[in-house]
Structure formats: C-alpha cells, structure tokens
C-alpha cells in the first residue's frame, strides 16, 4: 500500500509538470492568434511586466502558471480511482494513460473552442462580446476568439477528467 501512496504522490508532481508544459504550448497557440490577449490582459493578470519585452517567453510562463495547478486538481481524483489496480506498476501505467486522456481531451476541446470562435466571432457578431475585451485592444475579434479557446480548454479539462475516470473504472475490471 505504501508503494501505491508513493505512486499517487509522484503523479501529483508529474501531473503538475505535464499540465504546466501543456499550458506553455497552449499559450503559444493562443499568442499566435492574439498577442494582445497577453500584452493587454494576461501579463497584467499574472504580474509579468517583463512579458512585454519577451512576449513569447512571457506567454509560456503565463501558460505554465495558469495550468500547473489544474494538473494537481485533476490528478487528485484520478489517483484515488487508480488505487483499484492490484500493483503499483499497473497503477502508475493506468494513471499516466488516464492523465494523457485528460490532456488530449483538453487540447481537442480548446482547439474546437477556437474553431467555433473562428466561425462565430466576426465583425458582424463581435458587438455582443465587446464587454470581454480589455481597453486599447486593436483586434477585438482575435482577442475574444482566444478567450473562447481558453474557456473551452478548462471545460476540456473537466471533460477529460470524466473520460479519465471512466477509463480507470473500465480498465480496472478487466
């Protein structure tokens, strides 16, 4: 049992690291779509005034800071469901796969959110979303689209957690 507890604890750290790396990649995509989402919003939100001078690095740091904790949050329940496996090795393998499922679902959901926003948010529809745009933003359409992507990614994390739990429950009975 002690070995399983050690796997559980190790996964919390692993999940935080992987989620942070996911956030770094996610925010590089976001930055490509709307640099202003970072220069007019995220750098201030995360207290990174130096991000203006090194915007790509700043976006990566924001991505890590915004998501590492989601890895821990998701890993807590996944880890509890993984105690169902008979050995620590099997527990670790299944838990890693479940976490990969979470990451993939979050990524796909975020990209789907961006894709939908690319279709739905345009010059004719932006008026309904202008309240979401920070002052001095030159391209509010792209700003709002990235906001949709970010919100969809958090929804994807929740959906991925559910998918990961289902995976763990189904594979523990086989």
From TrEMBL:
<keyword id="KW-0472">Membrane</keyword>
<feature type="transmembrane region" description="Helical">
    <location>
        <begin position="7"/>
        <end position="25"/>
    </location>
</feature>
<feature type="transmembrane region" description="Helical">
    <location>
        <begin position="57"/>
        <end position="83"/>
    </location>
</feature>
<protein>
    <recommendedName>
        <fullName>Signal peptide-containing protein</fullName>
    </recommendedName>
</protein>
<feature type="transmembrane region" description="Helical">
    <location>
        <begin position="152"/>
        <end position="169"/>
    </location>
</feature>
<feature type="transmembrane region" description="Helical">
    <location>
        <begin position="95"/>
        <end position="121"/>
    </location>
</feature>
<keyword id="KW-0812">Transmembrane</keyword>
<keyword id="KW-1133">Transmembrane helix</keyword>
């Amino acid at each position: 049992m002690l070995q399983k507890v050690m796997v559980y604890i190790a996964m919390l750290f692993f999940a935080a690291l992987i989620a942070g790396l996911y956030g770094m990649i996610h925010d590089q995509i976001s930055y490509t779509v709307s640099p202003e989402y970072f220069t007019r919003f995220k750098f201030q939100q995360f207290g990174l005034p130096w991000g203006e001078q090194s915007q790509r690095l700043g976006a990566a740091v924001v991505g890590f800071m915004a998501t590492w904790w989601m890895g821990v949050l998701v890993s807590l329940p996944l880890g509890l469901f993984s105690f169902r496996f008979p050995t620590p090795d099997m527990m670790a393998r299944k838990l890693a796969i479940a976490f990969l499922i979470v990451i993939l679902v979050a990524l796909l959901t975020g990209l789907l959110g961006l894709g939908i926003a690319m279709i739905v948010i345009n010059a004719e529809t932006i008026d309904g979303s202008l309240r979401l745009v920070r002052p001095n933003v030159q391209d509010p359409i792209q700003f709002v689209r990235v906001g949709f992507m970010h919100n969809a990614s958090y929804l994807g994390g929740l959906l991925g957690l559910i998918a990961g739990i289902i995976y763990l429950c189904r594979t523990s009975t086989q």
